[in-house]
Specification:
alpha/beta, globular
Length: 209
């Protein structure tokens, strides 16, 4: 069951505290706040109401690069450890997550993996920049029922290539996620535009027997 949105006052306070921690280059403090906020409001609300807006505010200027790195590292670490239990391995549930070829940024997949753990549902998260040949090999090895491929920029969001990949695996549900897919994704591939939509799609995937 997905959580309700954060109230405006809580969002404002979270933006201020997380921004201050990032400006202090304190990634550990950012990570701690990610854990606290996720525990209180849930990962989808945290990602869409706090993380995405704060990341979007960064202009990429030279003076902000260190701040951006501290924020990204803190967000990634916080999401990565959220709901992990030492010694316990969640089944992947037939879900494979990966960053598109040459895509270095996939915080959105870290958020999706954390949101799935929040629902007691594991996944196989292969990280950023997975070449197409490696993705094909991973599908043969892991035999997932669903693949979510993240693209942050149009440079890596090659819609025609994802559609071709989906056609190569007709029994696989294939989704593109992230803002990089600016060209329409046609069937059999589809675009997941929000984290709640991605979580719902993954939870609906049949688990391998």
């Amino acid at each position: 069951m997905l959580t309700d949105p954060m109230p405006a006052e809580a969002v404002e306070i979270a933006h201020k505290l997380v921004s201050l921690a990032a400006e202090d280059l304190d990634g550990n403090r950012v990570a701690t706040m990610m854990l606290e906020l996720a525990g209180e409001w849930g990962v989808p609300a945290l990602w869409e109401q706090v993380c995405q807006p704060l990341l979007a505010r960064l202009t990429g200027g030279a003076g902000e690069i260190a701040v951006e790195h501290a924020l990204c590292v803190g967000v990634r670490v916080g999401l990565d450890v959220y709901r992990r239990e030492p010694g316990r391995s969640l089944r992947t549930g037939g879900v494979l997550l990966a960053g598109a070829e040459r895509e270095a940024h996939c915080l959105g997949l870290d958020a999706l993996a954390a949101a799935l753990r929040e629902q007691g549902h594991g996944c196989l998260h292969l990280g950023p920049a997975l070449p197409w040949a490696a993705l094909t090999s991973a599908v043969y090895r892991a035999r997932p029922s669903i693949v979510v491929l993240w693209s942050q920029t149009p440079v890596t969001g090659r819609a025609y290539r994802l559609v071709r990949f989906a056609r190569d695996f007709p029994l696989l549900r294939v989704y593109g996620a992230g803002p990089g897919w600016i060209e329409p994704l046609t069937a059999p591939a589809a675009h997941l535009r929000t984290l709640p939509a991605a979580v719902a799609a993954c939870l609906a995937a049949p688990r391998p027997g």
